């Protein structure tokens, strides 16, 4: 089946590369030699400090909840993350340190290898009548940021809760997403594996 559902409770808990925290891996892919090709993950930043070095990768990070943080990229500037659901793109090789604005902050991360294709992200507020998703160039993941979502895909109609992810491993039609009562916001992540 080209489309599968990844439930929030199915995430694997793994340590950060620098050992200073833990992340919940939503999905990932590795090369034959074990090197990471791409990864989608959820993390909680609960203290000031450095981010892991991801030289050779592009990173997109988005705050989900909390009071936010400022990312200091050294000579590459800073990014103030004080609003949820605003993606920030940066090179994984940049020296990156986080300073919290208050308490812990939860974020969603997309990491892709520079030589492994590309990635694009989009925030979608689902209309009441539903939204038909255009096919992507490769892998597409739909992560539910808030609300509940009724998905209609080939052969299946799962309901996705906040934190669940729909994974579509095909360049064909994905399906339709509709709010399952109330409003629903999703994060579309496209990874070009060409």
Question: What does this entry show, briefly?
Answer:
By secondary structure, the chain is an all-beta fold. It is 0% helix and 55% strand.
Walk me through what this model shows.
With 194 residues, this protein is an all-beta fold. Helix content is 0%, strand content 55%. It contains no helices and 19 strands. The strands form four sheets. Strands 2-3-4-11-6-9 form a six-stranded antiparallel beta sheet, with no helix packed on it. Strands 1-17-14-19-12 form a five-stranded antiparallel beta sheet, with no helix packed on it. The protein is globular and about 45 Å long. It starts with a strand and ends with a strand.
CATH-wise, what's the superfamily of the largest domain?
A: Jelly Rolls
The shape, in one word, is globular
| Structure annotation, total helices | 0
Radius of gyration, in Å, reads: 17 Å
Q: Going across the major beta sheet, what is the strand order?
A: 2-3-4-11-6-9
How many domains make up the 3D coordinates? 2
> What is the CATH class designation of the largest domain?
Mainly Beta
Distance between the termini: 20 Å
Which structural class is indicated by helix and strand composition?
A: mainly beta
* Main sheet makeup: 6 strands, antiparallel
Strand content: over 45%
Helix % is: under 10%
CATH architecture of the largest domain: Sandwich
Fill in the CATH topology of the largest domain: Jelly Rolls
Question: What string, H for helix and E for strand, traces the elements in order?
Answer: EEEEEEEEEEEEEEEEEEE
pLDDT under 50 segments (min length 5)?
none
